Amino acid sequence: xxxxxxxxxxxxxxxxxxxxxxxxxxxxxxxxxxxxxxxxxxxxxxxxxxxxxxxxxxxxxxxxxxxxxxxxxxxxxxxxxxxxxxxxxxxxxxxxxxxxxxxxxxxxxxxxxxxxxxxxxxxxxxxxxxxxxxxxxxxxxxxxxxxxxxxxxxxxxxxxxxxxxxxxxxxxxxxxxxxxxxxxxxxxxxxxxxxxxxxxxxxxxxxxxxxxxxxxxxxxxxxxxxxxxxxxxxxxxxxxxxxxxxxxxxxxxxxxxxxxxxxxxxxxxxxxxxxxxxxxxxxxxxxxxxxxxxxxxxxxxxxxxxxxxxxxxxxxxxxxxxxxxxxxxxxxxxxxxxxxxxxxxxxxxxxxxxxxxxxxxxxx
Length: 364
Fold this sequence. Notes:
- Helix content is 12%, strand content 32%.
- By secondary structure, the chain is mainly β.
- It has 2 domains: 16-171, no CATH class; 183-355, no CATH class.
- It is elongated, with a radius of gyration of 29 Å.
């Protein structure tokens, strides 16, 4: 995994004896490590080096409806030293009161965080343990302070104006290299069976002609909305739990026909103009309701075919694009990392023919 430590301050080394000393002083009299190391707030830079998505409630999707997408916390792996933690905090866009001496009425944030971090480092074990700086979109996603968690930080705003609630976590779950994820993650991925779409059109038949629509007439396209849901799969092994979840993103509709030679034309006519469809719709589409007037209905996923298929069936394909996220935790639910696979696709087809319908005008 590529590691970005965020904005750097002056180089400083903290020894365990120094950490013990910091723990023993009073909150109002302590000089925080950030001040001793020359680290000063530098603005909301952490939001430009996001690596992981996660949640303090453990790995898995937390959805606010399809339109809202995944409501997940953002995890920044900031390294295993006080220097790296304070550098990340300096780039988080925290308010000035976070850095003000509490005696003058400021927030005790940096003093409290440094005291907690010093205690954590004093009892640190494995060399790959590290601090995570976490930003959550909802306050109720932030766990209470205690043990490996320090959540006494004020809220911040990202450059885009989004409010994030910060907390710090001492992460003891090994980070999987991005080039060689643990096999258990791929096992979970293989168990995530993505449903194929069931295709509908309107028109879907013209008189006795089934699987048909009409030239130069808006054809509504949609899939069964029951497949438009998050698919979750898990796998356990080696003391780790892998969770994979897939969220539908959009639907791509494709069809094409070309009858370039006269002998290929069922009516033995002239060379035909090729017809093709390559349409991306953001959702499953809207079903057409036969019982409702056409004037009160609308679809954001419709196509107009300008070329007849001259009685031949062509293949109409619908493909759902799925965003695939993975999460790795230990067996008690401590998040060790989350990431994203390349998008996956599930597809299905049905026959479709486009008919030329003659209109007859009569005078009454």
